[in-house]
Amino acid sequence: MNYINRRQFIQYSSLAISTSILTSCATPNNSNSTAKNNKNLDKVTYGTNWYAQGEHGGFYQAIATGIYEDYGLEVTIRMGNAQVNGTQLLVGGGIDFFMGSSLEAIRSVEIGIPTITVAAIFQKDPQVLIAHPGVGNDSLEQLKGKPILVSSLAEKGYWQFLKTKFGYTDDQRRPYNSSVVPFLVDKNVIQQGYLTSEPFTIQQKGGFEPVVMLLADAGYKPYATTIETTKEMVEKNPDLVQRFVHASIKGWYSYLENPEPANQLIKKDNPEMKDDLLAYSLEKMKKYGIIISGDASTKGIGAMTDERWKLFFDSVVEAGLIEPDTNYKEAFTLQFVNQGVEAYQ
What we know:
Number of helices: 14
Low-confidence stretches: 1-29
Oligomer: single chain
Shape: globular
Number of domains: 2
Distance between the termini: 31 Å
C-alpha cells in the first residue's frame, strides 16, 4: 500500500471548518482501539494514515500492553482512509497527533500550516518499485525509459526524485489503480508498491517472488510514519507530547519483540488484515531496517537529526517539490527524541 500518495494537502485558509465537522469526516471505518478508561488518564487521539496494519503495530502494542496507561494516557487510534485528511483534522482539533512524513511536514511549513514533527518511527520510507524477475528490470537504473504504473499523486513525491536521479521521464508513467492484476498478466509491467504489502500480494496471487527496489536505499530518504502534532501542543503541553512519544517508542520496541498483543487489536479494527500478512510486514520491516537503522540504532526508535532533515530538504528542492526559501527547520523538533536505546528498555 502506498501511504505517501493517499493524502493531498490543502491550503491552510481552507482549514476553518468546525472541529465537529472535521471529526465526523473521519468517523466511518475508524478504530475504537482505546486504552482502558480511567478518569485519571489524559485522553489522546492518534490519527493513522490508513486502515490498521502491521506498519502501525507499535502504537497498537502500546495500547494492548498498557504502556500508554503507564504514562498516564488513554489513547484512541483513529484509522485513516483515502477520504480523510489527517492534517486538516490535526489543525482543526479532531485529533491530537497524526502519522505523517518528512515531505508532508515540509510542505505544511511551505503553505503555512502550523504542524510539527516530534518523532520519526520509520527511518526508511517503505516505498518501492516492483518488477518481474528475469526480464532485465533488476535495478532502478534499468527502468529508465520503461513504462511504470504509478499513482497520479506520485508526481508530487518520489517520481520527481526518480526523474532527477535516474533520468526518468513523464512519458514513462502509466495509471496505477491499486491492483496487482495488470502486473501479474504482463511480465514487462513495473509498478509502485509498499515494501510490506504489494510484494506479498504478488507472491500469493502470482506464485513468484518479484524484484523489489526500495527507494530509500537509492537515496530517497524522507522519514515516514512520523508523529506530528500542532506547534501549539508543543508549546503549551510539552509533557503530554513527551509522554506520548516515549510510550509510543516503547510500544514499537515491544512490538518488534512480540507482536501478538497488537496484532489482535489490529485484526479487530481491520478484519481484512490476516496473520500471514502481519508476519510478512514485520519480517520486512526488520530485514530492511525500516524502523531500526541509521541514527535509530544508537539514539533509539523515533530518532531524527538536523543533518538528515537538511539532506532530504536539499533533495526535494533539487527535484522541484519544495521552494528553496522554505524554512524546513520549522517542520520538526528534536526535543522529544534521541534519548538513546537504553532509555526505552
